Amino acid sequence: MRSRQDVWWQALRGAAAIVFGLLALAWPSVTALALAVLFGVYALTNGTLNLTGAFSRDKAGKARLLLVLRGLLGIAAGVVALLLPAISALALAVVIGVWAVATGVLEIGTAVVVRQHGRGLLAVVGVLSIVAGVLLLLRPDVGAVAIAQVIGAYAIVVGALTLAEAWRRRRSAAKPERHVG
Fold this sequence. Notes:
Elements: H1 2-26, H2 32-54, H3 61-83, H4 89-113, H5 119-138, H6 144-174
């Protein structure tokens, strides 16, 4: 039962990422203030859902620790963005870039530690997170529009991959086991 609940939390994380990405792409010329608030809400939501997933019964050891770290990192990034929304676009790009790289490393670590089918999608999400973060850190000066476009595209892709993994987990849990006899 708990595993089914984890799938829904994962699906909710994917949907939140897609909504955030679409909003960032729909209004790429928003001010840094609006982008900071939008990112802050997304990071808090994602962090909270990661923490919730970390304490499910089927998570233990390193997998739980990595989810807790991802959750705390998301919450910390969200709090910084919401408490200091007037930071410049440059500072916002750095905060989001560091968050994306660190999250990507933790997602790859989770994919390595978790021994279940479909962990490859989590590794792909981790690599995409690192690439998006490095792009932001290499060129934080490109402006709020470019930052919104990179973040929006990244969030949509990560959200779609997260939803795909939730769908795969839901389908595999629903399949009756076959016994070869």
